[in-house]
Amino acid sequence: TNSKIASVASFFISRIDSAIDKIIDTRLKASKDASEQEKLKSVQGKVAIANGKLAYQSYLQIFSGDRWNKLAAKGAQTQRVLWASTSTKNPAYRDVMYVE
């Protein structure tokens, strides 16, 4: 029976901020506009968590509703989400930032 099938989706958190923060740093160095610099700084270290929240909302939507309930009634299991890469890579960030 399919009720024994299980899977995990690994979602890497800190890697996203590492990649986005590099782009932000490059744009900050190139920008002379104080307003733009302020906006860029305001999202440093925040994109990964926002992305994770969006992914979790999608997860909740996928595994709910009539369609899902019919599958679950036949033994289907939700795909588990594994929040991976939760240690910060940037020493300026608190070491528990992603875990919190």
Notes on the structure:
By secondary structure, the chain is mainly alpha-helical. Helices cover 52% and strands 10% of the residues. It is built from four helices and two strands, in the order E-H-H-H-H-E. It has a two-stranded parallel sheet. Helix 1 packs antiparallel against helix 2 (34-43). The longest helix is centred in the N-terminal third of the chain and has 17 residues, at 14-30.
Q: Which helices and strands, and how do they pair?
A:
Elements (H helix, E strand, L loop, with lengths): L7 E5 L1 H17 L3 H10 L3 H16 L2 H9 L6 E5 L16
Parallel strand pairs: 1-2
Helix pairs in contact: 1-2
Cα Rg: 19 Å
Category by helix and strand content: mainly alpha
Quantity of strands, as a count:
2
Widest sheet: strand ordering: 1-2
**What proportion of the residues is helical, as a percent range?**
40-55%
H/I helix tally: 4
Question: How much beta, percentage-wise?
Answer: 5-15%
Give the low-confidence spans: none
Q: Between the first and last Cα atoms, what is the distance in angstroms?
A: 38 Å
